[in-house]
Amino acid sequence: MQKNYDEITALDARVVAVTTQDLSAASGSIESVGISFPLAYDVTATVPRQWERFDNFDTELADPAIYVIDKEGMLVWKSIGDNYQHYVKADEIIEQLESIDG
Amino acid sequence: MVLSVDDAENAAEMKDALGLEFPVLYDTDTSVATEYGLYDLLGDGVSAPATFIIRTDGTIESALIGTTISERPTPDSILDVLASLAGMHRAVMTDPADAAEVVLPMARAPEVGQLVPDFDLPTASGESVSLGENLDEGNVVLVFFRAWW
Lengths: 102, 149
Fold this sequence. Notes:
Chain A is of the alpha+beta class.
């Protein structure tokens, strides 16, 4: 994600990441990964629950998901996958961001 | 419904001064505050500030207990909890004039084409991350993130 972060911010978009994982463990990992976008902690998983992306795979974690939301607050694209290793190529996200303004 | 451990006269003055339209109840013997574990929680001889959101079946949905005398949940955070209990989402709102459109009856998770619910969460360094504030700045890529992908 980080390696594509500059490309996303160049499109005048923000990245907001939410994790339900333990604070200390997650921050250690973040330092090691070196991400520069805000990582919000939601230890009660309120947000993933609201988006129905919590513990669908018996991991007691937020399920991986990526959403593109336009600045009016409207959801324009989502990629939620059907397993906990779900991953999206950054190109797809960038394509979606470009289509909003295009 | 509001409970105060102040004496009735002080509490009545405050109710008038603030023009409160909901009932303010006096818990001058602190029995309710004690039962909820709030009395003298902060070592100051009064009830700690706390807000409970209670479901219609009498169970507690949300207990928001202040760690300082001035720490209170924002009205927004309370409305978010109530909206989620009602099966609704509070949409991100940047203009208060849009208030009439804010509470949208939605089938839980937002679908493409729908407004998304706002949230406000802390980072490890204690800063606040608000989805709405980020949307004020531009489009947002929201990621539910696992540290060990």
